[in-house]
Amino acid sequence: MPLPQNASEARLQNTVVSLSLGLKLLNTLHELNIPFAQLMSSTVLSLVNVVQNVKRNREECIQLLEHIQRFIYAISEIYLQSETGDFSPMVLVSIGEFTQTLQKTHTFIEAQQDGNKLRSFFRQTEMSSLLKDCQTGLEQALANLNIHVRHQTWTNVNEFNAILENTHTQLLQLASTTSEYGSSIDKSSSIYRGGSDSFISSRSFSLLPATPKIFYGRDSEVDTIMTILTDPSPRIPILGGAGMGKTALARTVLNHPDTCLMFKERVFVSAESATTSNELVALIALNVGLEPGRDVTQAVLKYFKQSTASVLLVLDNLETPWEPTQSRAAIEDVLALLADIPHLALIVTLRGAERPGKVRWSRPFLSPLPPLSPEAARNVFMDICDEAEESSPAELKQLLDLTDCMPLAIDLIAHIADYEGVADTLERWETQKTGLLSMGNDRRSNLDLSIALSFSSARMTPGSKELLSLLSILPDGLAEVELIQANLPIPDILRCKSILLATSLAYQENGQRLRCLTPVREYIHQLHPPSQRLAHPLRNHFHSLLELYRKHDGELLQPVVHQITPNLGNLQEVLHQGLAANENSDFAEDIYCILSLNVFYRVSREICTPLMNEIGSMPHDSADHRLAASILVERLQSYSQDPSFIPQDLISEAETHFEHFTDIELKARLYLAAGIHFLRHRSNLAQARDYLEKTLSLSKECGIASINCSALLGLARINMQSGNVDKAQACAREAQQLAQLSGNFYDGARARYIDAGCLMQMGDYQSSVLQLTMARELLSLCGMARGHVDQEITIYQAEVHFLKSEYVEAKQIYAEMLKDSSADQNPHAFACALLNLAGVEVLVGEPTEGVRRRLNEAKRIFTDHKYLSGATYCDATLAHLHLRDHETAQAKRIFDECLRLQWGVENQTVGYCLERLADVMQWGGAQCFDFTWPVVYLAFAFNVKEKLALYKACMSLGDVFLSIDDKESARTLFEVALGGFHYMDVHHSRAQCLLRLGNIAERTGERVRAREYWNAACALFERSFQHEQAAEIRKKLDSGSSDEVDIEIERLRPPVS
User: Could you tell me which InterPro entries the record lists for this protein (predicted)?
Assistant: First the structure.
């Protein structure tokens, strides 16, 4: 039985109060960088506002909201109970599923308001089904979390609100002791936005390593480097053998007081996880806060060149990418480019005694670092080992002699002696050195002896050895949260970590990630490589995060991105080891993880992981058709970005595998990738339509709404390009309905954006702007503001201004887009901004040279990326520039070539060319004008159902009739066009019609009416930034002369044969 209205209202208000408290919890969780928190917060905030106006199904809505508030409390409690301040991947999956249900709930509750348009979208059966989905989804989400959270009971809403307030207080206390990125983010990712200026440069995003606390025996090297740093453009290589203290010397110089005064910006980059020049540059970009991309070399160079202050860049462990012969030349090219920047000082550390080529290194050359002096070695040992004071000088000297005064060996043995005593350490050396010395008696052997002694220390447990073995293949190390959540088969893993730190076999970078020095990693990997039993749990942990990223569109999960990114080197190495293992029962799982990793690379960096090439060169189990098909689908999705890739053979091969198993979703993704490829890169609309229709059929069969939406939106784009605007809009609106039923705000925003494009083509600019606004609101609700779709919306908004001839507003948006993009990181967006900006500049009379320069650069980028339509549109805009400058022969030749290339392929370019070819006024009069073009333009506009083009074609035909002195027919056509332009609010075209109607009125003796037309035209020419035309009309109005009118009419008369 429903509650009385007053009781229902009270219950609703209590729920709203609790939800408002829940919003505080979500906002604090967002500050702690919890995935989905921002998305949940924005959706709940909207719900709090919407639910106040609910008129139908009120009790059901209240019940849904009560489930939501309990879920928010549950995840807050789980976070407070966690040992690491992070959610496990299992909990994150539950939160992700809840978030999808939350969006469905928003759709349902929003539809219960009076007068809400959503209700007209759905049938009653669909609304009932949506309610059931929401109830089931929320109940399941709570059930999933109940196994993780401690149970609390409350008897009334006030008690529950008090519990929420207390939970919020605890979260705030936790947040106050956590860095800006929160504990869920690895602090060693080299990105940081706060702290003391002594550790963080004024512009860089790099957290600088601290000065070594124990540092002796390098005074002369420090003095030499500090002297060189005062020279113009210093370039300093620090060379030496493994473990000789190169990094310690670089860190000392980096934090020297004089260095801090000389360089306003200091950047430290550890290059040991880089294997190519692109990866090295990407690390530099990451450390200075640049966005990732396919190749950020130019962006990095631009960053340093535009720096107004002196910069010191330290590249540590550069030997990793430089030593392999296949990458050496490219690394040296990067160094040479950096060395060409005058105000950039460069320090590199490399193992060995050879300096990289292509750089004029500063003189005097710093010699490779020698071992420490006996005195310095003794000081290092004494600072580490408390037992040294009680040892005899002879024993101490004997032990130091065994290290050969190598800094790393001293450090390791000092820690052993500090625990076991100097005498016992010497005894162990005597029992173990014979076998080890058989490898040689050089410095490298001594270093191995030191590591081996540490490894066999009495403190080393089997678990700590296993952990060290795993670290030997992890160049990025591991954060504590990863040690705990990865479910590694190592008992008491945090104690094992402490043992490795105590023996100096591992260290914590900036107090966070547990790492091994490169020499230690290399030696342990040879001595005690990890088994797949150790590697697989870590792989599974990261695979679950990668799958979470893939499932939720990537951009929703920046905190997850920050967990994955610092481990990319680890993932590459773990998966490489798995592929190389002779006996690997989880071989297929390794490949599936590589495919998920490639999705991350493809979406976040627009490149592929090198492991995809390894998969291609390895034999697979021919019976595992699902695996083979999955590889082919991911290859097609990856190479959709490469227009030179021929996909037909790959699609056929995948279809052959599908004959042996059934996976409708995977097959739908294959055809979706194929359709997108042919639509974007081949301009083959027929083949794209065929694949997308197959996708649509399969997606309906398997019930995957996101694939269904993507197929519908692809078909909408095809119909728009084919001139079938009504069909395009029908597809877009079906996608809108599907997205709302499935609670997918992101797909809903995409659908509204496509619908806006259809409305633009129909000439309904007001409704188009409304759809774009609603699309942007949906993006904000799902946390995707400022993403790719948001950029597309901005382009459409600029295009509306452009079509309405609001050129100043369009130019401002295009200029801002050009400023926010770059040719290196997002070349397509950059080239489009250049092209669009040039198109506006042609119309507003900007100087020819600057416009031509923009067009040339845009065409070069489009050509390099094999985007023919973009390059041809550049040519069409260049033809318009020629026409504006009265170079009619060049303009005609280029327009004809553009039409030849794009007719039946790209309607936008065709319409652009025909509009200008049909405008007799731009061709200097009838003497050089082909009067068939207005008719062709009218037929084209009618065929593609583009209203603006239809009315512009009518105006061009009016000029044709005016040229043969048929003033009445011309007047009728101009009035028809004027009505259309008035409805669409197109200022420039309205002004042109009014000018022509005024001219006709003047010639027929209607002087008063002519002045009314001209006055209205003058204001509209000013609004559309056509100042010259406005000035001509004012001159005409002031003089009262009709000479200019007669000249303009005369230009339209056809030549006498």
Answer: Adaptor_Cbl_N_dom_sf (IPR036537), MLKL-like_MCAfunc (IPR059179), P-loop_NTPase (IPR027417), TPR-like_helical_dom_sf (IPR011990), TPR_rpt (IPR019734)
Give the three-state DSSP class for 604. Answer: helix
pLDDT at 708 over 90: yes
313 forms bridges with which residues in the sheet? 267, 346
**Which residue do the tokens 């339209």 mark?**
1052
Q: Is the peptide bond before 237 cis (omega within 30 degrees of 0)?
A: no
977-997 pLDDT tens trace: 999 999 999 999 999 999 999
Partnered with residue 351 across adjacent β-strands are 240
Spatial separation of the C-alpha atoms in residues 33 and 182, rounded to whole Å: 6
Q: What is the pLDDT of residue 335?
A: 96
Residue 641 β-bridge partners: none
Going by C-alpha positions, the residue among 749, 758, 770 that lies closest to residue 731 is 758
Compute CA 1012 distance to the chain's CA centroid, rounded to the nearest angstrom. Answer: 54
Please say whether the beta carbons of 941 and 984 come within 8 A.
no
Q: How far apart are CA 4 and CA 1035, in angstroms?
A: 75
Contact 729, 755 (CB under 8 A): yes
Residue 288 one-letter amino acid: V
d(CA 131, CA 108): 7
Phi, psi of 369 (to 5 degrees): -65, 125
Taking the C-alpha atoms of residue 741 and residue 761, their distance in angstroms, rounded to an integer, is: 27
User: Tokens at residue 689, please?
Assistant: 């339509």
**What residue spans of 782-887 are helical by DSSP H?**
788-803, 807-820, 827-844, 848-864, 868-884
Q: Strand locations in 288-424, DSSP E?
A: 311-316, 344-351
Check whether 740 has a pLDDT greater than 80. yes
Q: Which tokens sit at 155?
A: 């008897």
**Order of strands, edge to edge, in the sheet holding 311-316?**
235-240, 344-351, 311-316, 265-270
Distant-in-sequence contacts of 853-859, Cβ < 8 A, 24+ apart: 855/881, 857/823, 857/831, 858/831, 858/832, 858/834
Q: What pLDDT band is residue 458 in, cutting at 50, 70 and 90?
A: low
Q: Are 265 and 309 in contact (CB under 8 A)?
A: yes
- Rounded distance, CA 277 to CA 935, Å? 57
Please say whether the dihedral angle defined by the alpha carbons of residues 976, 977, 978 and 983, taken in this order, is positive or negative.
positive
Six-digit token string for 972: 């009728």
| 748-800: pLDDT as tens digits | 989 999 999 999 988 899 999 999 999 988 887 776 666 778 888 888 999 99
Q: Measured between alpha carbons, how far is 938 from 973 in angstroms, rounded to an integer?
A: 12
Residue 509: DSSP 8-state: E
SS (H, E, C) 66-117: HHHHHHHHHHHHHHHHCCCCCCCHHHHHHHHHHHHHHHHHHHHHHCCECCCC
